Amino acid sequence: MTGGYLKGRIRREDILAAAVTVYGEVGYHGSSLREIAKRAGITHAGLLYHFPNKESLLAAVLERRDALDAAREQLQARPGLEVLRRYLALAEHNVGNPGIVDLYSRLAAEAVAEDHPAHEYFVRHYRMARAGVLESFRAMADSGELREGVDPEVAALTFIALMDGLQVQWLTTPDEVDLVGSLEFYLRSLLTVGL
Amino acid sequence: MTGGYLKGRIRREDILAAAVTVYGEVGYHGSSLREIAKRAGITHAGLLYHFPNKESLLAAVLERRDALDAAREQLQARPGLEVLRRYLALAEHNVGNPGIVDLYSRLAAEAVAEDHPAHEYFVRHYRMARAGVLESFRAMADSGELREGVDPEVAALTFIALMDGLQVQWLTTPDEVDLVGSLEFYLRSLLTVGL
């Protein structure tokens, strides 16, 4: 790793941290690249060197969040029930962090178009999220812990989709949606063993 | 119904139809109230009289779509398995109409804040959607068609959330998501009878 490369990484990290702060304070439409640059102690042009637009910066914020989530919840554990439990812990963590859930939901809905700067991030994110639980559903199918007839691929796809769909409904009417309980219910309907 | 009231209703209907057309042609960010007014054959000020901003117009577009969906798929049938089958038919219809699904997903993610002009629409929409399937899950619980231990309320909430979450993933990677098949899979996991 060269000194210049390392410096660039640190700078990038400062910008992402500043983006999270500004977004948390003023929300999606209020956050400007100018304000984020100011907080990161960098010029507007300097920020544009790292991120050409707001969408690519926000996609990088979400990519960093994925890495932090995976490390904190240890999502890379040995495939099986324990991994699914850790996804429930991630949902529990999300309940305490509505700001980043809001950013994720908005950017996901905006980025469905192929030419959106965050599109590639979401294609990758969905594939990785599905693959992350797929291995566990497969392991559980092999050990008889998955109900007969449950296809691990469809179980993985629907589990991730359900998390996403519940989040928007929960952000809209927090008192009417039990985010973690609903996911637990869903997992129970697929498994032959308790959580 | 007075003549003036009727004329206002027709005008409103023209505007909503024009909004659907313009949105279909140029997408979310491209659609302007000015262009929609032009297509509806009304002045910009005339349009603002009916809808003070773009978000309230788009919420009205979605409200109209809910009514059209309910009529076309006959979602108000006698509670039970048949109603759930009609929701699958609605998902099938959505597969052929990605534009309105895109509008729905974006506005839903934007409107989580209480002060958003479309917030009240989504609070109402989610409640109605959940209530619409809840009665059917309850009827099926009574007749033993719901698996033991499945709470109809949670089944209703998760069914609607899964539809929403699948739609965004499907719009992002259409080749990787079977919208209707995934919902069928989910229903099968809750029921003791076939679809």
Automatic annotation (TrEMBL), chains A, B:
<keyword id="KW-0238">DNA-binding</keyword>
<dbReference type="InterPro" id="IPR001647">
    <property type="entry name" value="HTH_TetR"/>
</dbReference>
<dbReference type="InterPro" id="IPR050109">
    <property type="entry name" value="HTH-type_TetR-like_transc_reg"/>
</dbReference>
<feature type="DNA-binding region" description="H-T-H motif">
    <location>
        <begin position="32"/>
        <end position="51"/>
    </location>
</feature>
<keyword id="KW-0804">Transcription</keyword>
<dbReference type="GO" id="GO:0003700">
    <property type="term" value="F:DNA-binding transcription factor activity"/>
</dbReference>
<dbReference type="Pfam" id="PF00440">
    <property type="entry name" value="TetR_N"/>
</dbReference>
<feature type="domain" description="HTH tetR-type">
    <location>
        <begin position="9"/>
        <end position="69"/>
    </location>
</feature>
<dbReference type="Pfam" id="PF13977">
    <property type="entry name" value="TetR_C_6"/>
</dbReference>
<protein>
    <submittedName>
        <fullName>TetR family transcriptional regulator</fullName>
    </submittedName>
</protein>
<keyword id="KW-0678">Repressor</keyword>
<dbReference type="InterPro" id="IPR039538">
    <property type="entry name" value="BetI_C"/>
</dbReference>
<dbReference type="GO" id="GO:0000976">
    <property type="term" value="F:transcription cis-regulatory region binding"/>
</dbReference>
<keyword id="KW-0805">Transcription regulation</keyword>
<dbReference type="InterPro" id="IPR009057">
    <property type="entry name" value="Homeodomain-like_sf"/>
</dbReference>
<dbReference type="InterPro" id="IPR036271">
    <property type="entry name" value="Tet_transcr_reg_TetR-rel_C_sf"/>
</dbReference>
